[in-house]
């Protein structure tokens, strides 16, 4: 319940830090009560108990214990006027010459068993002023002062509650109480903390700027994290001689309290870790870019080679096609002009006449025209038509 209610925690915190001052005030109050108890015994110890609120057993000044209890009661200002009234007793309600002892005998004494009004009024009023109006209210003043200081401290920066909340969250990430957490858990841990120590995600840039030490095993100590978070909340602290001396004393105290932290060796920090990470990513990007450009060049060269091969193959196919066409035309013409066609073009009579005539003179045969001779530019013409 106390952990859940911040107001109650604040009041209890103010009360706890006020305990030393409250003990001193209590000692002063006890001393004043002791003095007034002695004065009450010597001044009103033989007073006649005539009834009222005072009685023979408890409420009187006959013994030190009863006087002290009576002074304690009056210090609360409860019914002090009822106590003052019996102290003002005067004749004929009392004997001004003799006092009555416990055994019933009379003993002569100045004022007898009567009271002294001026002394009773001065006694009672001074005691009320000193105890109730000064010392008792001093208790309240001290508690309120410490409460205001706790509230002002909370507004300025960090309180004990913030440290308690820090270790409550730390317990989730370090259940075995090793005092270390992994570097990978730092961002989540700081984001889970409450204000003012917590830094909401994304908090990578802030944690890198803290330059928190990293020890072997890629681990971080709770004290290092807490100190840098406190510095972040409080801001820059002026480096004075007193501050330097205080920091050295704290380091000695920390070394005694956290021996495992002293035995570890710092291997890196959040700033160095970030620089290494950025450098590694830069090298990876540069290497990937180089590999990509190299592959693109290889692909381009391969594409050019394949294109040249295709062009050469297509040209060879064109040339082969033109030469084949000319060869086919020549063969067809030679076959046409060299074959005999008696039924259609030459009659039988003509064949006889030609046979007779051949004996006398040689008949000149028709020569099959060579396509290549007739059309020397047939290749160029064919290419243009194609």
From TrEMBL:
Q: Which membrane topology describes this protein?
A: Multi-pass membrane protein
Q: Gene3D superfamilies from the xrefs?
A: 1.10.287.70, EF-hand
Q: What UniProt keywords apply to this chain's record, in alphabetical order?
A: Calcium, Cell membrane, Glycoprotein, Ion channel, Ion transport, Membrane, Sodium, Sodium channel, Sodium transport, Transmembrane, Transmembrane helix, Transport, Voltage-gated channel
Pfam families the UniProt entry points to: Ion_trans (PF00520)
Q: One GO molecular function term? A: voltage-gated sodium channel activity
Subcellular localization, as worded in the UniProt entry: Cell membrane
Ranges for domain Ion transport come to: 2-154
Transmembrane residues, as ranges?
12-39, 118-144
Signal peptide boundaries: none
A Gene Ontology term for the protein's cellular component: voltage-gated sodium channel complex
Biological process (GO), any one: membrane depolarization during action potential
**Entry-linked InterPro entries:** Ion_trans_dom, Na_channel_asu, VGCC_Ca_Na
The record's principal subcellular location, in a coarse class, is: membrane
Describe its function: Mediates the voltage-dependent sodium ion permeability of excitable membranes. Assuming opened or closed conformations in response to the voltage difference across the membrane, the protein forms a sodium-selective channel through which Na(+) ions may pass in accordance with their electrochemical gradient.
The family line of this record is: Belongs to the sodium channel (TC 1.A.1.10) family.
Q: What is this protein called?
A: Sodium channel protein
What organism does the record attribute this protein to? Mytilus galloprovincialis
